[in-house]
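Researcher: Batch entry, complex prediction.
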Amino acid sequence: MTLSQYATLMDTMARLSLKADASRYFFGYVWWVLEPLLYVLVFYVVFELILQNRKEDFVVFLMCGQLAFVWFSKSLNQAARSILGSKGLVGRVDIPKSLFPLATIQEGLYKQAAVFLLLFAVLLAKGYTPSLVWGWLLPVMLVNYLLIVACSLFAAYLVCWVFDFHVFISMATIFLMFTSGVFWDPRDLDPAMTHWVLTLNPLAFLLDAYRQILLAGVAPNAVHLAIVGSVALLMALAGLAVLRRHSRFIALRVITS
Amino acid sequence: MLELVGVSHHYMARKSSFDHGLHHVLDNVSLRVMPGDTLGIVGRNGAGKTTMLRLMAGIIEPRQGVIRRRAGASCALLSLGLGFQDSLSGRDNALISAMLQGVSKRDALASLDAIREFTELGDSFEEPVKTYSSGMRARLGFASGLLTRVDILLIDEVLSVGDAQFRDKALAAMQQRLGGEQTVVFVSHAEGQLKALCDRAVWIEQGQLRAEGSPEEVIAQYRQPVAASR
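Model: Structure tokens for the complex:
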């Protein structure tokens, strides 16, 4: 299978799956925007109405973090089960196993495009104006994507190897949600703690980068971004190599699971 | 074209937590398939036939022994519509099926109408596969598998389902393919089909090769213990 065949197949699988997914729901494609909106609404009710958070423009702050985080967590959790969920195909054709997580991530990428448009619409409505700094969103999104791919490939492998890992992965996602500054600002912490949170947790750094760009109009730390991106890229390549090398072992695990 | 040398296979399947449960599937099987051969495989349910096809297709690896395939030979496994995504239409499933076998998207799209026609599914071809009966799934699986050109075709029970009219049509389509260089390995419980299609047959019992020869001889030997055990 050539690289272009692989890419076309991955994209076709993602598009058809989106189509099938939309046809299952009465509201179809509307859910792409409705679901993230509902997420934000829940947090708004909890933090703005019940806990009466004093932070300025808290809903926009929340959206920047939450929408990017959900992109990561949903893609990771769905990709983790994607190979195991394609038992029928895995038992019938000898294909690269990385196709399944990557097609799942591609599906999430299409949905995320709609989500980012929603975010921009809200920002414009709230009076934020686009500036040149917004150009930094592209590398930040790219690094975010690489991080999703890197984590998902290993997660998918581990879940095929020992099914119990999927419990661990959803636990890890919850842990990350609380430690990545989705609904609190790492910059409000003690400066030393801010430094540690942003350094140790690449996801916290990315969420903060989105906010810095969109809300404060400040470019993220380019060196930090490049380091996170390079590590994620290396991990993703390693993940591809592992899935390729153990392709038949994975097939056996999936068929006999 | 395809050779199995001393192939053994077993795997772990848990029956309960903390258990490994070893299952032996194939035990020291050797056989050879020449170009243009049509080899039939008979055996009871659970004898290891499907595993053998999966090993031949390179989907899984044997624990012991070697499987040699002629360099560059393409290979496809046709089995009952397990590989379908239920929420996708027959058309979309056929498209993915063809692309998975290495057909380019353009060629795959071009072959869809021929597949639709062969399946005789009519408007159901555009409906989700979850609405299909097992016979309809078999039609879709057979048609989308048959239209792709491969060197070695591995067929798992596909011809045993569906109504009589479609079975005849599928059988005729198979016979058309069999002339010439097409190499086929064929698993079936339909003895008439085996006799009609295959030039050689093997009988697998409890993971071991029990008999090898002309389809008539092998089926006769296979029938004996079945008849005796009754």
